[in-house]
Design a protein that fits this description.
Mean pLDDT: 85
Radius of gyration: 18 Å
Order of helices and strands: EHEEEEEHHEHEEE
Low-confidence stretches: 176-187
Shape: globular
Helix content: 10-25%
Strand order of the largest sheet: 1-7-4
Number of strands: 10
Structural class: alpha+beta
Strand content: 15-25%
Largest sheet: 3 strands, antiparallel
């Protein structure tokens, strides 16, 4: 929200209703690096949402939806889901390129990589609160407690599977399935 002393007399109390919680943006488009934010806190472990073998996979290998059970690492507000990627040259991962926040932070090439690719960022709201409220209400913060189980739902675009969208929900409010398995190694 905008602090009243910064609004120059304008009523900006509804500014949060303009928050886009349905699209992924890239940090490079906003001109910042996530790894430079001193108060950035990871709220879960990283989750690998997709692994593709460019020699064998095609678009039909990617499901339309995947759900991952994750746990909150601490109390707080989940502001966004961060998407990063890594590629490697062989199964031994001999040569690897990554856009993970921790991988680019202290490397001499890190700034260039973040400005070329960056990370994907989708702002998050409390999905269930949004479904219970009126249409013109600002998005409610997604508050979590340490150890709380959450479901990260990923929807891949149909038919091309070129883009994706996240929804974060409390596990108690969903029927979480991920093709019969859950992965809990991501953020």
């Amino acid at each position: 929200s905008v602090q009243s002393q910064c609004s120059m007399g304008f009523d900006l109390s509804a500014i949060g209703s303009l928050q886009d919680t349905g699209n992924i943006f890239f940090t490079k488009q906003w001109g910042f690096r996530l790894n430079t934010l001193s108060d950035l806190e990871m709220m879960s472990e990283r989750v690998s949402i997709l692994e593709v073998d460019f020699q064998k996979s095609d678009r039909s290998s990617i499901p339309a939806t995947k759900t991952f059970r994750i746990k909150a690492l601490q109390d707080g507000i989940v502001h966004a889901v961060v998407a990063s990627w890594e590629v490697w040259s062989d199964t031994a991962k001999t040569h690897r390129i990554s856009t993970h926040i921790e991988d680019t932070k202290h490397e001499p090439w890190g700034f260039a990589r973040d400005m070329q690719w960056g990370q994907g960022l989708q702002l998050i709201e409390d999905f269930d609160a949004a479904n219970r409220s009126e249409r013109h209400v600002a998005p409610a913060p997604f508050e979590v407690k340490k150890g709380e189980e959450l479901d990260l739902i990923v929807r891949f675009s149909v038919p091309c599977r070129q883009t994706f969208q996240f929804t974060l929900r409390r596990a108690s409010n969903t029927d979480a399935t991920s093709n019969g398995r859950h992965q809990t190694n991501g953020y």
